[in-house]
Amino acid sequence: MLAEIKGINEECGVFGIWGHEKAAELTYYGLHSMQHRGQEGAGVVVSDGKNLKAHKEMGLVNDVFKHADFSALSGSVAVGHVRYSTQGGKVLENVQPLLFRSQTESMALAHNGNIMNAYKLRGELEAEGSILQTSSDSEVLAHLIKRSGNKITEETISKALNQVVGAYAYIILKEDKMFVALDPTGIRPLSIGRLGDAYVVASETCAFGQIGATFEREVLPGELITISNDGLSSIRFAMRQQRKMCAMEYVYLSRPDSDVNHVNVHASRKNMGMELAKESPVEADIVVGVPDSSISAAIGYAEESGLPYEMGIIKNRYVGRTFIQPSQELREQGVKMKLSPVRSIIEGKRVIMIDDSIVRGTTSKRIVQMLKQAGAKEVHVRIASPSIQNPCYYGIDMSTRAELIAANHSVPEISNIIGADSVAYLSEAGLEKAVLKDKTIHQGICTACMTGKYPVKEEGEKEIAYTSC
Length: 469
Ligand code: AMP
What we know:
17 helices, single chain, 2 domains
């Protein structure tokens, strides 16, 4: 049995660039395009070939970089990070890239994912005299690398990676080399791009578009890439497993213009909406999507059902994600501030409300209420993913089973709780059909939070290990 990790997981974004004179500035733009992956803090570490220089702060990318002195961040190589947090671990020390100085070589480290055996590894490291600087699980890797030999090489990194279990996309920078690694199951997204002669690495391909870079290829599961002035080389540090890209990247997390493992996120969401319309049709007048993450699915549902798609809900763009509020009361207030109904569209209508997912049920309940107050005759909730019943151990904030509404209630009960006239979820088969258009390329997706099928297991981990990214 996997022990349950409390709701402190984070979803982060990593960015790296090799061989561009404006490395720090481009990192700023790249991170800005991945702001949705993390709003707690951001940072950059630049190398000029001799020294590593860091700038990181709590806050949004714009605010963090407003205070950056770009002339002091000179160098043609950089690694950057955006960090997301729900509760706990919200301190500057956990903002990445983490930087480790040493007499021989320094190392910066940026991570997206979750190290499942971090608690055990930290215990072992501490017992052997290591003093860790953060409460982040990401830091463990740096210590393991250093203990695998006093050099930062493909060999020492491979040895270290083989000791960690979980989901991870890592960028590791030393003065004259950048290393890029993806876990053997490839749960988190990570791609390589080119900008002229420069190499670019990013969690999401939207970052390439932002800086004018072109997509080159996906980093493969179990692959360790080295980038230096000699170019790019690659080894396998572990046996490649069948890839299981995180389904929530498609459902909710990634930007619609990103391609995740060769599948465009908007297109996959639209397909989810279409499958949902085939599986769970209902008589109604209009289809409304909850902005922004459900718009693509709502368009697909409307197209497939032949019903008009309407802008029935408007989002205030200047309110942060509701999910990041630490208490239930604040989250509910957050939903109220964020979304408003368009009464003239809604009044007297039978509305199909499409949302991408239900986690705790806060958002759906509030929106159903809002639509009814705006005069909707009926509200039928259609969710463009299977119900979320299990915690995620791979770095997506899914909270504990106790808080997951679908782990504790049947679909009719959920419908009752959120005040809807009906509720239906997309099936697992429908989700796979929507995402995995070509199984030879796309292999599979991780649906553990929906189905309980965990592709990577780690027995006996302690509750609340460390805050992940
Ligand atoms: P809830 O109100 O707790 O049911 O949250 C559901 C809403 O949060 C959905 O409408 C999604 O758009 C969004 N969401 C789903 N998964 C996540 C996640 N892992 N992190 C942040 N927000 C999420």
